[in-house]
Automatic annotation (TrEMBL):
This protein's name: FAD/NAD(P)-binding domain-containing protein
Cofactor (UniProt): FAD
GO MF terms held by the record: oxidoreductase activity
Domain named FAD/NAD(P)-binding: residues: 7-254
Superkingdom of origin: Bacteria
Keywords: FAD, Flavoprotein
Amino acid sequence: MPGHAHVVGAGPAGWAAARQLARAGWSVDLHAGEAHHPYNRVEVSKSLLVGTATAADHGLGAVPDGVTLHLGDRIVVTRGHLTRAATGEELSGPIILATGAIPRTVPSLADAHVLRTADDASLLRETLGGRGRGVDVVGAGVLGMEAAGSLTDAGQRVRVHDVAPEIMSRMLPDGAAAWLRGVHERRGVDFALGAEPQLDGDAVTVAAIGIRPDTELAEQLGLEVADGVVVDELGSTSRPGIYAVGDCSALRVGESLRREEDLASARASGIRGATGVLVDAGEMEAPGAHAPAPARRWSVQAGLRVTTVGEVVGAGAEPGAGAEHIVVVSEAEEFESVVVRDGLVIGAVAVAKRPNPRGIAATVGHPWDR
């Protein structure tokens, strides 16, 4: 008989988990910390930041039948149990934690703006007030570069700072990153890389130095936490009946832990967590093990879509040991490259106005013979 579950957090992972359970006939209370209807967070650094769209324009869809959505519903831990702060109601039955991640901060950037929610984007836009005050973006990763591109398009004077010598060092090999930096420079973005940030006191500062899993509730519940709430392949935590999905979780793979901070992985994680609930309830058999698909990441910035597939970056923004980064196309608005090891393509990079225009991503896992 279908049961009832609670999902804490209404980002893409929590939304996917709630929808999957509802499809199985379960009733679900979906507790959203924000006052907005669940929306696509990838737009925070783009259309929501420059004001060309609202959170409602990027909503995740209609609330599925069987799901009750509670907006602005803060969940706390009281006497070892999750409860609704506003009512004191204790959550019972299977619980899926989908609390996501929060921006990393350092004392020197305590007063800087961050970009994680629609309200963060709105506050930064209001602070700038449409005037060209200048913006110091600290952090040249995906979020920082997306924000820099959006703010430049909106007429702001932007300088990007990072202690790393090149942008996007966790996503792109140096050759691809240098090409993309050139695109931003031609659009007017200034860079100060390879040194501690020297900020302009008159500029607005945006901290984009990464995110960390929001594990506060999990820690208060006594769950195992290590760079995220530790889970198995079906989202089960160290406490029976509690699951974790999305950015707040860390998947145990053998002796190591794996975290993936992208939209597709969040959705897949939510579905796995819902599957775990159904398996433990005896409503379905555990799915068989399967080889994971090559990791796929993407970003939209400077009018271009950046896509990586497979193993692209090793230590130090270079391909891993024994691998070679081969540039296939390098034009004004299009770049493609592959990472090859022992004659086999293990990763690919595609940057263009439309996704993967030449199909370079399809070469991953195949011999390189060009």
